[in-house]
Design a protein that fits this description.
This protein has 10 helices and 7 strands. It has 249 residues and is of the alpha/beta class. Strands 3-2-1-4-5-6-7 form a 7-stranded parallel β-sheet, with helices on both faces. The longest helix is centred in the middle third of the chain and has 27 residues.
């Protein structure tokens, strides 16, 4: 059966891989993101695109209205892949007080990684297919063991965990499942910026028991399974996909 699927952050990295995976299943896919030009160049067969800042009420509401109009009022699968390291992607304010930089870092990360997921979900929660609907969040290994840089990024991803649990309990009676996937180091994304120096790459991969970096396809396959009939009895879970990286070496 053809489903209506929304993928936020669908123009690059994990979101793009997920969009291709769902499109290959014959689903109708809507890509959401901040940059219209990136979405338009994504190359997902038959996909619709809509550009909006999902960290704002206005942006989330506009995206939800577009989706419901395009899909006839029902969304089957909602995949939240929009996000990033907020302090790196949002210009910091000028100021002499070091607390300004701390506040900027935490606010930027929560807007980019938490609100982008929560606002759109709340705008659409009454229109998720019932039964059978799926809501999928992208968390991070940083939410489980720290960010290694002040905690803002990991904290913003960790905030999705109790929301996942509460939403799973609230929507379970309607036959809707809610889960989060927590990747480890994933190569071939925009997350780490320009190409990582070879020494840093070897260090990162060397800390992964399976001996390789993850790929966007690894995460897309997990999302696809959670949205499949095989994942119908899995809800309220934080599914780790990190090759054992969280265990350390």
């Amino acid at each position: 059966m053809t489903r209506n699927v929304i993928v936020t952050g669908g123009g690059t990295g994990i979101g793009l891989a997920a969009a291709h995976a769902f499109a290959a299943e014959g689903d109708r896919v809507l890509l959401l993101g901040r940059r219209a030009e990136v979405l338009e160049k994504a190359g997902v067969p038959g996909a619709l695109t809509f550009a909006a800042d999902l960290s704002t009420v206005q942006g989330a509401r506009a995206a939800a209205d577009f989706a419901l109009d395009a899909f006839g009022g029902t969304v089957d699968v909602l995949v939240h892949s929009a996000g990033g390291i907020g302090g790196r992607m949002v210009e910091a304010p000028e100021g002499d007080d070091p607390l300004d930089a701390v506040a900027h870092d935490w606010n930027a990360n929560f807007r980019m990684n938490t609100l982008t997921s929560i606002l759109l979900t709340e705008a659409l929660r009454e229109n998720i297919a019932a039964p059978g609907g799926r809501i999928l969040f992208l968390s991070s290994i940083a939410a489980l063991r720290g960010s290694g840089g002040g905690g803002a990024y990991g904290g913003s991803k960790a905030a999705l965990h109790p929301y996942t649990f509460d939403l799973a309990k609230a929507l379970g009676p309607r036959g809707i499942t809610v889960n989060a996937v927590a990747p480890g180091y994933i190569e071939d994304t925009e997350f780490f910026g320009p190409a990582m120096p070879e020494e840093d790459y070897r260090r990162r991969v060397g800390a992964i028991p399976t001996g390789r970096a993850g790929t966007p396809g690894d995460i897309a396959a997990t999302l696809l399974w959670l949205a499949s009939p095989g994942g119908a009895h899995v809800t309220g879970q934080i599914v780790q996909v990190n090759g054992g990286e969280v265990l350390g070496r």
